[in-house]
Known about the structure:
Pathway: One-carbon metabolism; tetrahydrofolate interconversion. The chain has helices spanning about 10-30, 45-60, 75-85, 105-110, 125-130, 140-150, 170-180, 195-200, 245-250, 260-284, and strands spanning about 5, 35-40, 65-70, 95, 160-165, 185-190, 205, 225-230, 230-235, 235-240, 255. By secondary structure, it is an alpha/beta fold. The chain has two domains: about 30-115, Leucine Dehydrogenase, chain A, domain 1 (Rossmann fold); about 140-260, Rossmann fold (3-Layer(aba) Sandwich). It is globular, with a radius of gyration of 19 Å.
Amino acid sequence: MSAQIIDGKKVAKGIRGDLKEEVAKLKTDGIAPHLAVILVGDDPASKTYVSMKEKTANKIGMESTVKRLPSDVSEEELLQLIKELNENDSVHGILVQLPLPHHINENKVINSIDPDKDVDSFHPINVGNLVAGKKKFTPCTPAGIMKLLESINCEINGKNAVIVGRSNIVGKPISLLLLEQNATVSICHSRTKDLSAMTKEADILIVAVGKPEFVTGKMIKPGAVVIDVGVNRIEGELIGDVEFDSAKEAASHITPVPGGVGPMTITMLLNNTIEAAKAWKNKQ
Ligand SMILES: Nc1nc(=O)c2c([nH]1)NC[C@@H]1CN(c3ccc(C(=O)N[C@@H](CCC(=O)O)C(=O)O)cc3)C=[N+]21
């Protein structure tokens, strides 16, 4: 058996078509959804991601501004820029590309973003709302994963969902979203005693550990849905956290890397920016 490959590019494109219409509608109401991205330093991967965000935003008719700061910028200057963007009524979404240089306190920066403009949904207020089930924004990568599951009509209610990885950006929030849909959720990590025994129980397996080809086919329950969130760049090539060739023999559905979760992340970021613009409009 060979799994059906979940085409994240295609799903993302479909959603972007809807978003483009929403942007056009908002523009006729005099509101141009506007995303501001802050890039500190010149890490090549970050530069690529930021220009992809800018390009995709423009493709659906959205406004985008990229603020580029040198790697030795002071924390104070960065916080000042965020303050200006918070106060700028024409900006609806603010994203600070992570990781930041070590001399800058990441938490302090995230905490300074207006929660209403926090399209990454990393601010503690938005994290708290997600935990309480009253969210304003859904964090981009987890939101994208839910859309991918939806695209294959994946049943979630009552299923065993196993998450490998407990990051604030993916592992923790995706666990909450799956729990909201009544999955039985287990979160595994580096101290998990028998990882294979856990992953083999998964009807839905989400892997976000940042270790190339960490999960192999023999760790997967036959017929499972496998979502690979890994983006490991090795000698210029993008490698997932799942060993694709062996995994696709066990799984019923699987996401590739590239072309799986990645394209969804950016699309959901644009979705959140449109949501922010709509919420702003309703406050006026
Ligand atoms: N504040 C913040 N928010 C983020 O959402 C954020 C961040 N910082 N820092 C870095 C990570 C990583 N990330 C990705 C986005 C798109 C792809 C993506 O589109 N990947 C393509 C391939 C792109 C390529 O070839 O390089 C794919 O998987 O098909 C991957 C990774 C967002 N991140």
